[in-house]
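Below is one such protein, fold included:
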Amino acid sequence: MSADLKTVNNRFLDVHLRLSSEINSLEASIKRRVNNRLSRGRVEVAVTFERTTQVQYELNRPLITGYVNALRLIQEEFNLPGEPDINMVARLPGALQPGREGLDERMVTGVEQALDQAIDELEKMREQEGAALREEMRERLDRIEALVPVIEAAAGTLVEVYRSRLLKKIGELVNRGGQTIEVDPGRLAQEVAYLADRSDVSEEMVRLRSHVSQFREALDSAADTGKMLDFLLQELNREANTTLSKSTDLAIKEAALAIKAEVEKLREQVQNVE
């Protein structure tokens, strides 16, 4: 008796069975047992069963009778010679079945134990992979969080940057026209404040830090957190996109793009989180 489980990532639980013909009657209970232990993934379950004693077979009389009657009808209708071949009948799927009384309680228990052992090994492997995956995801969150001060530092210099740009632009226009124009400090401050307000990303950074913190908490949670992590990734990506659209500063754009790259890597990894 042996049971083998293979899994690939899937948002839902999708169980496919390959069973020895002698234990086909256990299909429903085997699938139910897998459903009770696993919550997601495409799972291929192969259970093989080998007897060491003689097997008694039963005839599927309704199936054989219908098949033979159909052959005789063809023979009569088309005036064909010959008789039904026993070899053809024997090869008919389902014509011969292992005797039901041959599958005793001891054999059923053996199937269940083999299946439970295979699931135990699968869960142990998943736990090990999950621990490594969570650690890698935490490292990516650290990288995202480390980029926030970079953006905030660059954003803190934007007021002076905008002031210098405006003064430079005004100077170029004045020199080009050969005119002498006195710059109104109040008007200049107003324009600088307007540009700084349009590029202010402080709220985005606050929300981004909050989403990173919630993501860490979800990773440590024992509950099914896949949907929560998906939602938080959407929000992290939204804050990065908003930051990109608000600022023309190269340092801020590079940091926001780096955040988006980490979010995409996290999105791939979240697909493997239950």
Q: What stands out?
A: The two ends are 30 Å apart (CA to CA). Residues 3 and 85 are 37 Å apart (CA to CA). The chain has a mean pLDDT of 81. The longest helix spans residues 105-156.
